[in-house]
Write a structure and sequence with these properties.
Layout: H1 2-10, E1 16-19, H2 21-32, E2 36-40, E3 44-46, E4 49-51, E5 54-60, H3 62-70
Antiparallel strand pairs: 1-5, 2-5, 3-4
Helix pairs in contact: 1-2, 1-3
Length: about 90
């Protein structure tokens, strides 16, 4: 899910390279939504189908930071996770 990837990216030192089809697709969604600035490599056709090799996330935008505040990480019981503030 893109919001969980956005949370992970917020903890990384940027720029950060994302690999793997699902994660690259999630970065693409975050970029289209305006939550991150990223360079996404073109899909490559292989004998097994299309692949998205990588994406480099350069920054989280103000809109992305707003999303992180609006949808904070929750613990398994439905409350806010330890270490998050309102």
């Amino acid at each position: 899910m893109p919001i969980s990837l956005l949370r992970q990216l917020a903890l990384k030192e940027l720029p950060f390279t994302v690999t793997g089809g699902e994660d690259v697709d999630a970065v693409h969604i975050l970029a289209i939504a305006g939550h991150v600035h990223a360079v996404i490599a073109s899909a490559v056709r292989s004998p097994l189908g299309w692949r998205n090799p990588s994406a480099v996330v350069h920054s989280i935008t103000a809109s992305g930071r707003r999303m992180l505040r609006l949808f904070p990480q929750r613990d398994h019981d439905g409350g806010r996770a330890a270490g998050t503030d309102a």
